[in-house]
Amino acid sequence: MSLFANRKARNRRRKEKSWQVPEIHWRRLMYGMSGFAAVTAFLWLIVAALDQSIDRVVLQGRFQRVSPMDVEQAVRDLIHGAGLVTVDLTTVQRAIEKLPWVDAASVGRAWPRGLQVRVVEQVAAARWGTNGLLNNRGKLFLSEARFIPPELPRLSGPKDTETLVAERYFAIQGRLVEGGVRIAALRLDARGAWEIDLDNGVRIRLGRRQVDERFERFVASALRIVVQRSAEINYVDMRYTNGFSVGWRGSTKVASVDELGDTPEG
Predict the structure, then answer these.
(1) Among residues 68, 177, 203, 224, which is most buried (max CB within 10 A)?
(2) Half-sphere exposure (CA, 13 Å, Cβ side) for 137?
C-alpha cells in the first residue's frame, strides 16, 4: 500500500473515531437523578414545614401621624393566604410606604409565624402652597394635608419648583436664626424673583439676579437693623448694586443705603 493510501486510511479512522457517540453510564446517571430528586423533595418538605400561615404582625416605630391600624391592615391585605416563607416582603414594604406620612418601612420575618414591621414617619419641614407638606429633603410628600403644623414656614413657587425652593430655604434659614429671626415665608414668583417674609413681619426683596450675593449682603449689612427696628420697617429691598433700601411702616418715604445711588435691579 502506498504512503498516500496509508495516510488516507488514517485520516478516515480519525474521522470515524471523532464522530463516535460517547458511552453513557446509565447507572451513574440514574443515581445522580435520584439524588437530585431526593434533595429537592427534602428541601420542599423543609419549606412546607416552615411556610406557616402568618398570624401576627409586630409593629415598631414612633406613631404620631401614622395609624398603626392602617399599617397592620395594609399588611394583612397582602399576606392573606401567603406563608411566612413565600410572602413577598418587598411588595408588603412598598404598600406600607404608600400610606400617608410614611417615609420608609422595613419588613422582616419573625419566626415562627409573624412579621416584624418598622415604620419611619415623615418629618414635615415646611408647608408648600396652601395644603402641601415638604419633608426635610425638600420632597413634597402630601399635596392635600388635613393637618398642617402652624409653626411651619410657607414655601411657594411655580409648578415643579418644590425642590429648588426648599434647597434655598434650607441654605439660608440657619444664617437668619443665628441673627435672631426666622423665615415665615419664602416665595419664588413666575418671573424668578425671590422674596422672604420674616417672622417679625419684615419682607426681604432679593429679586432675580445674584440672589446669593444679595442675601449675604443682607446678613452683613441689614439684618442687625431689621432685628433692632422691626416694628418700624415694612420691607428691605436688596436689589441694588452695593446697598439696599428700607421701606418704613406708615410712611411713603424710602431710606436708601446705597453707595452709588442706583435704582433697584431685577
Answers:
(1) 203
(2) 5
